[in-house]
Amino acid sequence: MGYKVAPLARLIEQFERMPGIGKKSAQRIAFHVLGMSEKDAKNFAQCIIDAHEKIHRCSVCGDLTDSDLCPICASITRDKSLVCVVENPADVLAFERTREFKGTYHVLHGAISPINGIGPDELNVKSLISRVAAGDIKEVIMATDPTVEGEATAMYLSKLIKPFGVTVSRLAYGVPVGGDLEYADEITLQRAIEGRQIL
Amino acid sequence: MGYKVAPLARLIEQFERMPGIGKKSAQRIAFHVLGMSEKDAKNFAQCIIDAHEKIHRCSVCGDLTDSDLCPICASITRDKSLVCVVENPADVLAFERTREFKGTYHVLHGAISPINGIGPDELNVKSLISRVAAGDIKEVIMATDPTVEGEATAMYLSKLIKPFGVTVSRLAYGVPVGGDLEYADEITLQRAIEGRQIL
Fold it and tell me: Which residues are CB-contacts of A175 (< 8 A; sequence separation ≥ 6)?
């Protein structure tokens, strides 16, 4: 049974589409939004539009940013010779929470998945090869998800990168196999970085 | 650790404020919103603004609507002599899902709670008394939440309404005590309506 008031039904529908939100949660959230002050609701709507208009990919690593370079690529204290390759921006957040990793990242925005029609051309791969070819990188850590797609992506990229004489490593299996990398806890991720294996 | 990109951090913050959404869910939802097409994101933002601008309270029952009367009060097939008093618009939805109740509603928008400074004047009580005083109502069903505040509200309203010679009933304790009415299942709510007791 949908709500009969069209603007409210549409709002509930919007929240139902979000990951991890069911029908009743969507309804509860919609009522919460209705209960906001006029100013807060307008601010919320503006945040959505702002995020879309202002956020794009870092021209070096592909992570999300609102300037040309993301804060990590722009930082003078990060080790530019060490690159951690991840599938998603959320994975960068997960590694940053460990406060241990001092290198930079490269965000693929997905993993190779023939079954979903996603090949290397659909991912942020070309700019990774350009970075490696430029010659300043000593080691690339493959930190794709510990799934079939993530493993295949790591192996594929490893074969492309090794000819440049760059060390390619893979996260230690401290990360739980089959899980989603962005939900790993700080300690597990830290151990996984420390125990990385040369491929 | 917050995200360093301000527009994204602000968006995540907005979702963190929603009921039942934690930090990681908020982050996941924000990335989902970023992944929407430009058109879908603008539509989402517009839905929030529309809901706020177009939705107000029904002039009879206080439920949320985008016209003067809500669809239930405007319907010619609903029994106007039977009024079900609920705390929130979500409770109306819960009763409507039973498809059994053919009367109308009155939405209080809360319950009496001295500890939170909510008295009858903060609730949609005056218009309920006006409806009863108008003389067309035969029975008022108290369907406030089965909590201390809900019970107190039901008792208070019952004392105000009985002098008008109107039958006042209370939902049967088919609804789980201490729970939140909007999450009750259809069958439980239906039994509760059937077994209502004269106060």
Answer: A146, A181, A184, A188, A189, A192
pTM (two decimals): 0.71
List all residues 6 or more positions away from A40 whose beta carbon is below 8 Å from its beta carbon. Answer: none
In angstroms, what CA-CA distances link A121 with A10, A35, A92, A110?
36, 45, 22, 11
Rounded to the nearest angstrom, the minimum Cα separation between A174 and chain B is 21
Q: How far, in Å, CA of A58 to CA of B8, rounded?
A: 14
Question: For chain A, what percent of residues have pLDDT higher than 70?
Answer: 91
Strand runs labelled E in chain A: 56-57, 64-65, 79-86, 103-107, 139-142, 167-170, 197-198
Question: A113 and A149 in contact (C-beta within 8 Å)?
Answer: yes
Q: What pLDDT was estimated at residue B16? A: 93
Q: What part of A 26-45 touches B (C-beta under 8 Å)?
A: 27-34, 36, 38, 41-45
Q: Do B54 and A7 touch (CB under 8 A)?
A: yes
Q: Looking at residue B181, what is its pLDDT? A: 67
Each residue of A139-190: pLDDT tens digit?
999 999 878 899 899 999 999 999 999 999 987 766 666 667 677 777 777 7
